[in-house]
Design brief:
Cofactor: Mn(2+)
Order of helices and strands: HEHHEHEHHEHEEHEHHEHEH
Number of domains: 1
Family: Belongs to the arginase family.
Binding site for Mn(2+): 171, 198, 200, 202, 289, 291
Distance between the termini: 25 Å
Largest sheet: 9 strands, mixed
Helix content: 40-55%
Shape: globular
Number of helices: 12
Organism: Pseudoalteromonas gelatinilytica
Keywords: Hydrolase, Manganese, Metal-binding
Strand content: 5-15%
Radius of gyration: 19 Å
Structural class: alpha/beta
CATH topology: Arginase, Chain A
C-alpha cells in the first residue's frame, strides 16, 4: 500500500464509522443496529475492529460499487428522518436483494446539528474536532457535507476504477457526492452526465439564506458538468414555476412525470440516449430521490408527492440507459423510515424501503459491471 493510500485509510478510520452507526445513539435502535451487524459481520461485539480491518481489503475487493452511508438530514426542511436511511436500506438490501453485492465503506460520522464547515466559526470547529477526533487541532472536517466531499475526493484519487453508491440522508448529500465524482471524471478526461430522479427540481440558488440544502444542490454542481444540459431530470411535478423557466434559466433538461406517464418511459429514454450520444457522454451518475416515485410507492419520505412515477417507469429508464452507458456512480436519497405520511392504509416504510431497495440493487449491479 502506498503512503497516499495509508493516509487515506487513516482518514477513513477517523472520519467514518461502521455501517449503520452514522446516527449517534446510546440505546435507540440498538436492536436494529445489532441486526445489521450480525448480517454483515456475524456478530455484534468488536465490530469497530472488524470494520477497520475490512478497510484494508478495499483495493482487493472484486466489487466496483462501494457503499457509503451519510446519515444526515440537517440539509432537509420538511419532514425529517432521512438520517435513518442508511441503516434501514442496508438491511433491506441484504434481506430482499442479496444479489446486489458491494464493498461497504461504512458511514460518515455525523454531528446531527451540522451541515457544512463553511457555516461554522473557528470555535465551533475546534469543539467538534475535539468531540469527533479527540484532537482540537485535527486536520479533518467536522460537518457531514464537508467530510463526505473530502472522503470522496480521496477515494477517487486512490481507487479511480471504483465508484461510490451513496445512501442518504437528505438530498443535500448529493452535492459533495456528485461534486467529487464530476471533478474526478473531468480530471480523467471523461465526459459525464447526472441522471436525477426527483419530484422537485432542486434548482434553488438558496433556501432561507442557506445555499447548500436539499432544494438547491443541483444548482451548485452545474459548473462541474461538461454542460448544464448534462443534468437530466426525471419525475418533476412539484414546482412553483413551469418547465420552461428551469430549462431556460439553468440550461438543464427535464422530463416531467406527466410526460413520462403520457409518452411512456421507453420513448423518453430513447430521446435521452440520443441526447447523451450527441453530447459524447462517456459515463453516468444516477441520483435518485425516492419521492420521484408516486406517494403510493414512496410515502416514507420528507416530501411525498402524488402523480409520480411507478417503480417500473424508473427501472425502464435506468435499464435503457445502462444498456448504452456505464453507470459509475449513484445514490439513493430521502428514505425516512420512521415517518408515516401515508393516508392509504399501508405500511409506508416497508413499501418505500422495498421499492428503494429494488432500484438501489439495480444501480449497484450496474456499477459492478
Amino acid at each position: 500500500m502506498s503512503n497516499t493510500q495509508k493516509a487515506f485509510h487513516e482518514k477513513l478510520s477517523q472520519c467514518l464509522c461502521p455501517p449503520g452507526d452514522g446516527v449517534f445513539t446510546v440505546n435507540t435502535a440498538k436492536e436494529r443496529k445489532d441486526a445489521l451487524r450480525t448480517k454483515l459481520y456475524g456478530q455484534t461485539d468488536n465490530v469497530d475492529v472488524l470494520w477497520k480491518e475490512s478497510l484494508e481489503t478495499l483495493a482487493d475487493s472484486e466489487h466496483k460499487a462501494v457503499i457509503l452511508g451519510i446519515s444526515s438530514d440537517c440539509g432537509g426542511g420538511i419532514l425529517r428522518g432521512a438520517n435513518w436511511g442508511p441503516l434501514f436500506l442496508r438491511s433491506t438490501l441484504i434481506d430482499q436483494q442479496p444479489q446486489a453485492r458491494a464493498f461497504d465503506l461504512g458511514d460518515v460520522r455525523v454531528i446531527p446539528h451540522l451541515l457544512h464547515d463553511k457555516y461554522l466559526n473557528d470555535a465551533t470547529i475546534t469543539n467538534c474536532q475535539k468531540a469527533l477526533y479527540a484532537d482540537e487541532n485535527s486536520e479533518y472536517h467536522v460537518s457531514p457535507l464537508s467530510i463526505t466531499e473530502d472522503v470522496c475526493d480521496g477515494f477517487y484519487a486512490n481507487y479511480p476504477e471504483k465508484g461510490i453508491f451513496g445512501i442518504g440522508g437528505d438530498h443535500s448529500i448529493s452535492y459533495p457526492l456528485t461534486k467529487a465524482y464530476l471533478r474526478a471524471k473531468r480530471d480523467a478526461g471523461k465526459r459525464t452526465a447526472i441522471i436525477h430522479f426527483d419530484a422537485h427540481t432542486d434548482l434553488l440558488v438558496e433556501r432561507l439564506g442557506i445555499d447548500l440544502c436539499f432544494g438547491s444542490w443541483c444548482t451548485h454542481i452545474l459548473e462541474y458538468l461538461p454542460a448544464p444540459r448534462n443534468l437530466i431530470q426525471f419525475g418533476i411535478r412539484s414546482s412553483g414555476k413551469p418547465k420552461q423557466h428551469w430549462e431556460d434559466t439553468f440550461g438543464v433538461k427535464q422530463h416531467w412525470a406527466h410526460e413520462i406517464i403520457e409518452r411512456g418511459a421507453k420513448a423518453v429514454a430513447e430521446e435521452v440516449i440520443a441526447q447523451l450520444k450527441a453530447d459524447n457522454v462517456d459515463e453516468l451518475y444516477v441520483s435518485f430521490d425516492i419521492d420521484a416515485l408516486d406517494e403510493s410507492f414512496a410515502s416514507a419520505t420528507g416530501t411525498p408527492e402524488a402523480g409520480g412515477l411507478t417503480p417500473e417507469h424508473a427501472l425502464d429508464i435506468l435499464v435503457a440507459l445502462a444498456d448504452e452507458f456505464p453507470i459509475t456512480g449513484a445514490d439513493m436519497m430521502e428514505i425516512a423510515p420512521f415517518t408515516d405520511s401515508s393516508l392509504i392504509g399501508q405500511t409506508s416504510s416497508e413499501t418505500t424501503l422495498r421499492e428503494g431497495a429494488k432500484i438501489s440493487a439495480f444501480l449497484i449491479n450496474a456499477m459492478n459491471k
